[in-house]
Specification:
The structure holds two protein chains of two kinds. By secondary structure, chain A is α/β, with parallel strands linked by helices. Helix content of chain A is 34%, strand content 26%. The longest helix of chain A is centred in the C-terminal third of the chain and has 19 residues. Chain A starts with a strand and ends in a 9-residue tail after the last helix. In chain B, helix 6 crosses helix 7 and helix 7 packs antiparallel against helix 9. The N terminus of chain B is likely disordered. The radius of gyration of chain B is 26 Å and the shape is flat. Chain B starts with 9 loop residues before the first helix and ends in a 7-residue tail after the last helix. Chain B is 75% helix and 0% strand. Classes of the chains: A alpha/beta, B mainly alpha. Chains A and B meet through helix 2, helix 4 and helix 5 of A and helix 1, helix 8 and helix 9 of B.
Amino acid sequence: MSTTKLRFDNVHKEFTVRDPARGRSARRQFVAVEDFTLDVPAGQLLTVVGPSGCGKSTLLDLVGGLTPPTSGRILLDGVEVTGPGLDRGVVFQQYALLPWRTARGNVEFGLAAKGVPRRERAARADEHLELVGLTGFADRYPHELSGGMKQRVAIARSLAFDPDVLLMDEPFAALDAQTRETLQDELLRIWRATGKTIVFITHGIDEAVYLGQRVAVMTPRPGRLHSTLDIDLDPSADEDVRSTAHFGELRHEVWTRLQTGQAAPVKELTHA
Amino acid sequence: MPETTPRLAADTVAFADPPTLGRTPAVTVPRTRTLRTVLVRAVRSSVALVAFLALWEAAPRLGLTDPVFLPPFTVVLQALAGQVASGELAEHLGASLGRAGVGFAIALGIAIPVGVAIGWYRQAAELLNPILELFRNTAALALLPVFILVLGIGETSKIAIVAFACTFPVLLTTIAGVRTVDPLLVKSARSLGLSSVRLFWHVVLPSAVPTIFTGIRMAGAASILVLIAAEMVGARAGLGYLITYTQFNFQIPQMYAGILVIALTGVTINALLLGLERHFSRWRVPA
């Protein structure tokens, strides 16, 4: 494989949370991510799958620089992540579009943050709206767009400022099944067109297997990397990949790993 | 559905009819029917008003009320026309609008920045909330004697009390607006590496604008209300002065004309602020 783009180096994250069981002002330490080590090669589409509460979103906040790890490091091109930056683009499940800006305005927002001159912004925004299939919708406000279209705008916004890594936090979970499948194919097309490194977080096994070149399986409480699985499907093939026997095998393999992960004795939460 | 649309654009195509997108469908209605609905709507919205004015006109003429204390509506309109022609009305209206405008502007200048600070910094809110609650629940007019004692009977005390009365609605809605900004928008903007200042300017403030405008409209109504009362106590010009002056001189139709102008001023200010609010909140989902 090619060079490492993103490296998780023994990443550990704890939160202080309220503990109502032990009294009103009681606090305890909650381990969200434990000893997470993983290398993501440049240009890979990695999917991270796990049940809710397994620390997937925390992992993404850590890469996004929105919260620092308790211990361990995250390295992007060998440089430690210490805060948010435009070398990473985040796509959230709930789109996070500014409702008072049009589709174009939202894409321009990211460009403005990067310091792209005002005159170039509109052209670059339109170019990326075209990339996500939204030509002709640049002047629409978010409330005038469907959920799928909003998520396309969000993807265009994150791609427009040209980040090294695209981080996606269950981006299609709020969409209906048909729109989700359409956008999954769109994402694969965009990924092949741009060659971006993508970390895609999901709780859907099918989605993880369908999209990922590699699937990272996480188990909850505390959030740990169970294992990774290379996917050798070719979603660009004409046939319906999801209904092939091989897809079924891979799906079952991920499912089994998730089950064994959960069956493992639940490690008690460390009390502070 | 025929499979002619390319698969990758399916969800775009489903919503691709631009004129109807996110709006009410553009159903073509026959012209005569639209005209009729407009007429019906106009009649429906003015029927109560017309009935009220008719009653006002009829009651004194039929001897139901004393025409000296309640002159018919048309007599009041004549008095109003006289005040307009003599330039008297312009003088008083100008004096009132000037005071209300200055007081209102001072209130906005104070309330929005302070509200933003209180909304943004939790400690500021904790520190200032009790005193704000106290002042908010003190009727501005109860403080009028204090304002007059401290600032005298001139323009300053009138402008100050308008500013005082306008500050609290704007302040409280600004705090609420800044506090209720969608945390996901803040998180998303932070992930772009935005500085606090830019985050504030481009995300927090725009999202608070519709809420702030609710307070601005409340302040608009309060400004006229408080000012008229202040002018009735001590002034040599202004609509409040006009009413008391004409009452003392037994110019009853002129007094009613003054009241009418005050009512219309209030309605106009509200309509203007509502228009501004709509302009700045166009992006909101239509209710």
